[in-house]
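Hi D.,

Good news: the full-assembly prediction came through. Inputs first.
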Amino acid sequence: MHFRVIVCLVLVITSCSLLMNACRFSESEKRAVTRKKEPVPLGSISALPEHYLSPEDNPTTAEKIELGRLLFYDPILSGNKDVACASCHHPEFGYAESLPLSIGVNGHGLGERRRFNAQNDIPFTKRNSQTILNTAFNGIDENGNYRPDDAPMFWDLRAKGLEEQALIPIKTLEEMRGHGFQEAAITDEIERRLKNIGQYRKLFKNVFGENAITAVNIGKALSGFQRSLVANNSRFDRYMRGDKSAMSIREIEGMQLFMNVGCARCHSGPMLSDYKTHVMGVVDNEQLAVSDSGFQRSYAFRTPSLRNLRFTRPYMHNGKIKELKEVMTFYEDLPGKDVPNRNVKKEQIDTLARMLKLEFRDINTILEFLSTLNDDKYDRKIPASVPSGLPVGGKIK
Ligand code: HEC
Ligand code: HEC
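Then the structure:
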């Protein structure tokens, strides 16, 4: 009798604590489930600031901008004196260019007519040329914060800030260097060349002081010019700053769809980019000898800005998509169909991309919204001549 009572009590106590444990377990499980169900924020978009910031050690001045402009158009910066920055970043194409992959060294012509010379052993550039417009704002977040000296650059974020970026094309074989010079020797060669040109000696002295023709200052002048290439007064910007007549009803509807479908989870902030990398599975460009695996060999690429798309076709990191409408069908197919890039598995595609809910009937309305992000009133001034006396912009005629 006594013994039975004890057994009963023990049984009651254990089952009670088991029950309580079960309760506690299901409690935390419940929390995990609700956490999973919490909606991922849709992101937010906004107007660009009216003014841009410069790094502390490279303030922007009118003289610096004009010196940078001359350097940007002067093929003296390239090994064979045949390519300038402007060969691949031309105002006619929104400071990008129109080939899927660019032709630098040993090329001629501009835009779709640009070709390699008959005798050629130089490859295409690895990726589609990015626009220089608004690179002053690279890295700007949803709260409008950014640091110009730390700004993410390139499709794979491999450089920080315009100043660091500017010397990279000069050192790259297929972009500007060519076979004539080693990577370690080319900037000394460029310094030597500029020192031999009286007009550059004078201009560098005005902007930077005595003995100013150095690689660092070449980078600073180029950056000063590029930073000044701002296009921050699109109809979208005016609408967001309060001019409600700047966008049509359909364009506003397109903007709402853009948000609701989930585009702004990545295309967020004033540049419509989170400046992060995402795996999207865009098909490889067959003009490249090896597959481009992007950021840390993960097949992720940086979210591009959606500003000024009218001028910067073709699209994606390798120019594989010709028209905006095709980019839209790419997104429509993304959650369901096979990944276009056969090196990327379905599970690798970014979760935020798989969450997209884009329907065919919404495509045209979203495209109307994207057209409000164009601002064609940017600085297109091309110098009449450059101090070296070489053809302005390189062999682009
Ligand atoms: C042969 C074509 C070519 C030439 C010449 C060239 N670029 Fe580029 N540029 C590109 C390509 C392609 C990219 C994208 C490369 C990547 O992401 O890997 C790029 C990217 C950039 C970017 C990054 C933009 C961003 O949003 O991250 C800047 C800035 C830039 N170039 C400036 C310059 C400057 C300055 C020069 C001259 C010193 C120059 N480029 C010469 C093709 C070129
Ligand atoms: C998961 C993040 C993500 C989402 C969500 C997303 N994008 Fe993108 N978008 C990217 C990335 C990354 C690229 C570049 C991919 C590449 O080149 O490999 C890109 C490229 C683009 C381009 C080409 C731009 C250019 O200059 O090449 C357009 C246009 C575009 N996206 C529009 C949209 C629209 C519209 C939506 C919503 C339907 C959307 N994106 C949703 C990350 C995203």
